[in-house]
Design a protein that fits this description.
By secondary structure, the chain is an alpha/beta fold. The protein is 49% helix and 18% strand. A 5-stranded parallel sheet has the order 2-1-3-4-5, sandwiched between helices.
């Protein structure tokens, strides 16, 4: 079974790089460019996890994370930031992000974190009775 991820990233090139790498790892990836697009995608697409840029136009990652936690409390989310912005990263973790990645993205770390966080969520879901 292929896991489905939503990547919400303002930079098209970074989004495509993440999509390419995650596809190579066996994930199916849907891309969105900002929080509004990301929330719209969640209305029509079932996903197993979200990679979420903190700094975005229209709706930033922290705002989107709040909306995700209200709608889908157990959705695994990894936030991404271009700089070590401790305040925003701490706030994201406090708001329920499962982990974070710093840009430029280390592809080995991306692979490890996505496999660990998103795969374990599916395993836990499969163990729960319907």
């Amino acid at each position: 079974m292929s896991l489905s991820l939503l990547v919400v990233e303002k930079d098209r090139d970074i989004g495509l790089m993440l999509q390419d790498r995650l596809n190579f790892l066996g994930f199916y990836v849907t891309l969105a460019r900002n929080g509004n697009e990301g929330m719209a995608m969640l209305e029509i697409t079932a996903v197993d996890g979200i990679l979420l840029d903190i700094e975005m136009p229209i709706m930033d990652g922290l705002t989107m994370l709040k909306h995700i936690r209200k709608r889908i409390p157990n959705m695994p989310v990894i936030v991404m930031s271009a700089e070590l912005n401790n305040d925003k990263l701490v706030k994201a973790i406090e708001q329920g992000a499962n982990d974070y990645l710093l840009k430029p993205i280390d592809v080995d770390l991306l692979s490890k974190k996505c496999s660990l966080i998103f795969s374990s969520n599916v395993s836990q879901r499969e163990l729960k009775p319907s």
